[in-house]
Design goal:
By secondary structure, this protein is α/β, with parallel strands linked by helices. About 60% of the residues lie in helices and about 10% in strands. It has a single domain, classed as 3-Layer(aba) Sandwich (Rossmann fold), CATH 3.40.50.1010. A five-stranded parallel beta sheet has the order 3-2-1-4-5, with helices on both faces. Strand 4, helix 11 and strand 5 form a beta-alpha-beta unit. The longest helix has 16 residues.
């Protein structure tokens, strides 16, 4: 494990649980089909229980950073492109996952750099309609949190790029990773395996590129 992963990996606490035999068999099969670990499935289930029982806009316990963070997801450029470009190889998976993301997570986080990058790609490579649809989708996305890359955030991103020059992170990637780290966000909607390298979890699981 590199220093990059050690620094940015999400902290996890080991616990011991006992499953019924049927639960164990079914979960193992689901994990196999999704190509994820059993632990990943159990954490996903724990997140759903927390988010259903403690909606952030109604329960004061969600003021705790670790609980609020569990209800947030960061959306990467690849996620937006896959949603809006029918030619994208991940379009079907992204479209299938998006409704569940809106149900599961109470806040969708994105940076202005990701929006600019997504719009530029869609406009140049796909056309005006999907690029404009991105702006409409952002406006219609409930509980959207738009993070602007200010001087402090960009300064941290530059430090990350300088310190880990052996990693293939673009400037927008660095700003995204710093944003997630600052806010304690552990899930990203996208397909860039660099999020996994940095210790975060991707949705949909098992679908990566780049």
């Amino acid at each position: 494990m590199t220093d990059m992963v050690i620094e940015m990996a999400i902290k996890k606490r080991p616990i011991q649980i006992y499953l019924e035999d049927r639960q164990h068999r079914v979960l193992r099969e689901i994990a196999r089909r999704r190509d994820v670990s059993l632990a990943c499935l159990l954490r996903e289930g724990a997140d759903r229980v927390i988010e259903e029982a403690l909606p952030p806009d109604a329960d004061p316990l969600m003021e705790l950073p670790e609980l609020a963070a569990a209800a947030r997801i960061f959306v990467d450029t690849g996620g937006w492109i896959a949603l809006l470009s029918h030619a994208d190889s991940h379009h079907a998976h992204a479209s299938a996952a998006w409704p569940g993301i809106l149900r599961r997570f109470h806040q969708v986080v994105v940076t202005n750099l990701v929006i600019a990058e997504s719009h530029t790609f869609l406009r140049r490579e796909v056309g005006f309609a999907p690029a404009w649809a991105l702006l409409d989708r952002l406006q219609a996305t409930p509980r959207l949190a738009l993070v602007y890359a200010d001087a402090e955030l960009e300064g941290d991103a530059r430090s990350l790029l300088r310190q880990y020059r052996d990693q293939e992170f673009a400037y927008t990637d660095a700003v995204s990773l710093v944003t997630m780290k600052r806010r304690g966000i552990k899930h990203a909607f996208g397909f860039d395996r660099r999020f996994l390298t940095a210790g975060f979890e991707l949705i949909p699981a098992g679908r990566t590129s780049g």
